[in-house]
Each structure stands twice: as C-alpha cells, then as structure tokens.
C-alpha cells in the first residue's frame, strides 16, 4: 500500500542516489506520472524525478560518468540502453519492422516517424503558417524561416544559413581552386572527404574497406545477393530491397500523399512529390540562384553528369539512369508484365504498359479534369494552363513548353550556320 511505501527507509548508494530498499513495481512508478510525485531528488541541484533510473541518468550530467563503452569504436555512454542502440550501427541490426511495407529500422523512433508516411499523420504543426510536418526536427528547421534564425555561420566570411547543408554547400565557394580531396577513380576533386573516418572492416572478397559492419556493406559484391524475386529472377542484398522491387510486379503503392491521394512504391518518391504541394525547393544553384525540388534537377541544371557509361561514354546525373541505360547494351529486360509476359528494361515502362490492360489513368488535371497514364504527361499538359516554358534556346533565348519544340526550333539555327 502507499502507506507502507511512505514508511520505507532509504539508504545512500555509492553514487549518492537515494533509493528504496525494496524494489517498487512498474505500476507504482508509472502512477507517479499521473500523481506528479517525484521522490528522487538530486543532491547536487535539487531537481526531482519520479523514477530512480531517471535520477541516475541525470546524475551523469554532473559526474560526466559514461561507464558503458562500445567494444567496436570505444565510444562511451551514460546508459546501457544507449550503448545497445549505438551498437546497431556496427552490427547492421534493424529490429523494428513496418507492418505496411516491410521496411526495417534500427531505432523505434525511426519506425514511428516512417509509419506517418502510410497514415499521412503530420503531428508537428507550425503556429505561424499552419504547415504540418511528420518530424519535429523538420518543424524546428522550418520555423527558422519565420524567426529569421540562421544558426550556421561561415567562419571565413561570416555569412549565416538556416540549414547546415546550405552552409556546407556555401563553403565550397571559398574552396574553389582548393579542393584537397580527389577521387582515385575519376580524378574529380571535392572540398571534403567522406572517407576520413577509420575503416577497420574489410570485405573478404574484394578487400574494400568500411567504417562499420552493416548488412548492405557485407553484401557489396554482386555475388552475395540472397534475396531473389520469384517473378523476374532479379536478386538483392537486402530483404527490404526485394520487398520494394516486388511492388513493380504487384502494383502496390503503400505510400499515399495526404494532399492528393497519389500513391508511390518508394517512400523517397513520396517525399519528393510532396515538395510539389509545399512549394519546397531546397536545392539552389550557387551560380544563378535558381532553386529546385530535387538534387538531381540541380545537377542536370549545372550540367553535371558524373555517371558515365563504359560502353558508349554517355553520361548521366543519376546512377539509376546509368543502370537503366546499360540495359540497352546488355539487352536485359527484368520487368515482366504478369498479364501478357511482355518484358521491359525499365520499371516505368512496365507501369505505363500495364495501363493498357487496366485502362487506368490515375493522373488527373485539376484545371480541366483530363486524365493521364503517367505523371510526366500530366506535368507536360499542365503547362497549357500555367504557361510555363522551361525549355530555353541558348542561341536566341526563346522558350518552349516542350523539349520536342525546342529541338525542332534549334534546327533552324543549325540550318543558318555555314
């Protein structure tokens, strides 16, 4: 009973923690949350806590004690639970699995955050403009726009930014001509290296070294891909990659947009799509100031195409585009229609083809109700309503709504040249 608890004697531990001689039940400790009872007091600052474990954790802030040490990298922690979580970085363990799409996570908080993609829940709302977010960190970052906060300051010129990524990108402007990190494969130079951390783990097959042991790294070699698709025979290094791939065959699109209801097979594609509703264009060209919703569009705008085909030397701004292109050389067609057995080299071609069987036209114009089988066709069509002309002739500056019109126009310049 509570009267018995009150009569219990306390003892002093070697950590200075006042604790009960007899252990309290979890229920009793939990009830204190509702009652506001905080019997555990810190002798250093008089702060009180409802649970002894919370006091113990707090006292670490005074003593600096971090008794739980990682045997892999030597990093120390004040709590054993934090060490257990940290060790998943080294082991690659992902115990928290999404029941909707099968994607796995190392931390429960990441799973909870991810599940909002399926539910459409956006619990973190901006009090200034009403915009909602799935993550509190995204809200904190967003609110800096209203407050004018720019906590990330360049040490060279004093310019400030509201995002750390923007500061990193800006610092590259100072490092022009001072690019100390050079790629050994292609000779391209960069302002910083992602390989500066120790890489003690190496692959027995190819001797490639890694900073941590994770499932994806252990399966870096093409031969080690244990998860095979029953439809097309394609293999993957992770079960989550196979689950994602199989949606091409099943047509399952578990990631729904809360604004327009459009579905996606990959969560990253939903995130990218949602920027079109929010008007979010975080990628800015340092040369002309033009902004983009996708990093690849910025690369394309800048003329950067780092992925080159070894067969024909054609270059691409995305590695996935190179992989798709290489199938034109190999003749590989891994995406097969389950209705007519026709095969395709790209998943998007299969999805487009499947529309001929289903008659589905999921992309509807909000201005005139016209429907399309592909989002790209809808985007092109909407230029009729918006008057947007993104394709500009470099010779005369004339703009066009469609790339085909620009190509046709450019022929007039070629014909005029001697």
TrEMBL record:
Taxonomy, superkingdom: Eukaryota
Keywords: DNA-binding, Metal-binding, Nucleus, Repeat, Transcription, Transcription regulation, Zinc, Zinc-finger
GO CC entries: nucleus
Subcellular location: Nucleus
GO molecular function terms noted in the UniProt entry: DNA-binding transcription factor activity, RNA polymerase II-specific; RNA polymerase II cis-regulatory region sequence-specific DNA binding; zinc ion binding
PROSITE patterns in the record: ZINC_FINGER_C2H2_1, ZINC_FINGER_C2H2_2
Domain C2H2-type: 40-67, 68-95, 96-123, 124-151, 152-179, 227-254, 255-282, 283-310, 307-334, 335-362, 363-390, 391-418
Assigned protein family: Belongs to the krueppel C2H2-type zinc-finger protein family.
Protein name: C2H2-type domain-containing protein
């Amino acid at each position: 009973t509570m009267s018995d608890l009150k009569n219990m004697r306390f003892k002093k531990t070697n950590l200075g923690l006042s604790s009960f001689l007899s252990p309290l039940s979890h229920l009793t400790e939990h009830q204190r949350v509702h009652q506001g009872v905080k019997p555990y007091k810190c002798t250093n600052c008089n702060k009180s806590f409802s649970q002894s474990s919370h006091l113990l954790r707090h006292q670490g802030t005074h003593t600096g004690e971090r008794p739980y040490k990682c045997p892999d990298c030597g990093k120390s922690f004040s709590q054993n639970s934090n060490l257990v979580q940290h060790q998943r970085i080294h082991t690659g363990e992902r115990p928290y699995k999404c029941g909707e799409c099968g994607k796995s996570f190392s931390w429960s908080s990441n799973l909870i955050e991810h599940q909002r993609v399926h539910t459409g829940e956006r619990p973190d709302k901006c009090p200034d403009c009403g915009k909602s977010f799935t993550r509190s960190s995204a809200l904190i970052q967003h609110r800096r726009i209203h407050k004018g906060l720019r906590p990330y300051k360049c040490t060279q010129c004093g310019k400030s930014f509201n995002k750390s990524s923007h500061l990193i990108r800006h610092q590259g402007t100072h490092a022009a001509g001072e690019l100390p990190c050079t790629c050994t494969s292609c000779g391209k130079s960069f302002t910083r290296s992602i390989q500066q951390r120790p890489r003690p783990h190496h692959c027995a097959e190819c001797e490639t070294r890694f900073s941590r042991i994770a499932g994806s790294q252990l399966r870096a070699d093409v031969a080690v891909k244990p998860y095979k698709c029953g439809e097309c025979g394609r293999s993957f290094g992770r079960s989550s990659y196979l689950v994602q791939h199989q949606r091409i065959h099943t047509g399952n699109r578990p990631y729904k947009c809360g604004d327009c209801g459009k579905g996606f097979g990959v969560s990253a594609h939903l995130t990218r799509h949602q920027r079109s509703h929010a008007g979010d264009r975080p990628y800015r060209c340092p040369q002309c100031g033009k902004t983009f919703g996708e990093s690849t569009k910025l690369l394309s705008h800048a003329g950067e195409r780092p992925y080159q085909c070894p067969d024909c030397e054609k270059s691409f701004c995305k590695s996935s585009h190179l992989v798709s292109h290489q199938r034109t050389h190999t003749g590989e067609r891994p995406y097969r229609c389950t209705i007519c057995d026709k095969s395709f080299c790209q998943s998007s071609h299969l999805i487009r083809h499947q529309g001929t069987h289903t008659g589905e036209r999921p992309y509807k114009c909000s201005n005139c109700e016209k429907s399309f089988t592909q989002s790209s066709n809808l985007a092109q069509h909407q230029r009729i309503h918006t008057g947007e002309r993104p394709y500009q002739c470099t010779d005369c500056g004339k703009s066009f709504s469609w790339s085909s019109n620009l190509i046709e126009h450019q022929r007039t310049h070629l014909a005029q040249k001697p």
